[in-house]
Automatic annotation (TrEMBL):
Domain HTH tetR-type residue range list: 1-61
Transmembrane segments: none
DNA-binding region range list: 24-43
InterPro entries cross-referenced by the UniProt entry: Homeodomain-like_sf (IPR009057), HTH-type_Tx_Regulator (IPR050624), HTH_TetR (IPR001647)
Keywords: DNA-binding, Repressor
Protein name per Swiss-Prot or TrEMBL: TetR family transcriptional regulator
Any Pfam family: TetR_N
GO molecular function: DNA binding
Highest taxon of the lineage: Bacteria
Length: 276
């Protein structure tokens, strides 16, 4: 097992039992069977460890949902979104439970901003689903619907994580799809306006710049072994520096890297950068 992954896995066990604040680096290293020096070769501090854990889990959830949604037709789109969201919560339930418990206690402002940033990316995916399915029919109430959908997923996470209520995910997704369609059809008085949404726009939720993409790609290329995925990433980097490829080729290169674990986030960012 990669040492950083081992540290994150063992730290999660301790965080689940004791919380972030009560867990020391010493306890984490003892749980891993490594020295403190080995820990600090992987992470500069406990806060950096927590930050990378948030990145690891949230990137996994967001890229998985985004990929599935983008490969689904409109008729199944809402169902697939709910189903994949619930599956992701189940897969990462331990970490999700820790985050929910800790957000109001010991997580510092920087980490809270990071969680809020990923939440805003998920909102972007939900909004794209709403617009794809309902179009202009719900133009005035689409933000109300966005927050209703988020509330439905919140109901599931609360009942599952804290009360361990058993659910059939298929039936649950179908139930929420039905409720969402009813709200979309019958809601006529908007509560949340676009101006209100812009006013509370997350400070980190700006489109990723070319410079930031290049920074992330260059770092990943250095860490990757020679492969088709690495060659594709090199070509995508060159395209950012000096555009020459057709959209079809760029899409193909992004598809080449999408299933490589260390490239999933880059694929997601590039897809949004090129508006695919």
């Amino acid at each position: 097992m990669v040492k950083k992954q081992l540290i994150m896995d063992k730290a999660l066990e301790l965080f689940a039992e004791q919380g972030f604040e009560a867990t020391s680096v010493q306890q984490i290293t003892e749980q891993c069977g490594i020295s403190k020096g080995a820990f600090y070769l992987s992470f500069k501090s406990k806060d950096e460890l927590i930050s990378e854990m948030i990145d690891h889990f949230m990137i996994g959830i967001i890229t998985n949902i985004d990929q599935v949604v983008k490969n689904t037709n409109n008729e199944e789109l809402l169902y697939v979104f709910y189903y994949e969201t619930f599956q992701s919560f189940d897969k990462h339930s331990d970490f999700t439970k820790v985050l929910i418990k800790e957000q109001t206690h010991t997580i510092n402002k920087e980490l809270l901003l990071k969680i809020s940033y990923y939440n805003s990316l998920l909102e972007r995916t939900i909004l794209s689903i709403i617009e794809s399915i309902y179009g202009d029919k719900i133009k005035q109430t689409k933000y109300d619907l966005l927050y209703c959908i988020k509330s439905f997923t919140g109901i599931y996470s609360e009942l599952k994580l804290f009360y361990n209520v058993p659910f059939n995910l298929q039936s649950l997704a179908e139930s929420f799809v039905e409720k969402t369609h009813l709200l979309a059809k019958h809601t006529t008085i908007p509560l949340i306006s676009e101006e209100m949404v812009q006013a509370i726009k997350h400070p980190l939720n700006e489109d990723v710049t070319e410079e930031k993409l290049l920074e992330i790609i260059e770092k990943t290329i250095v860490e990757m072994k020679d492969s088709i995925e690495k060659d594709s990433l090199v070509l995508l980097k060159e395209e950012l520096v000096e555009p020459a490829l057709s959209p079809a080729i760029i899409k193909g290169l992004i598809e080449n890297i999408r299933n490589q674990p260390e490239c999933r986030w880059i694929a997601y960012l590039l897809q949004n950068f090129y508006s695919f």
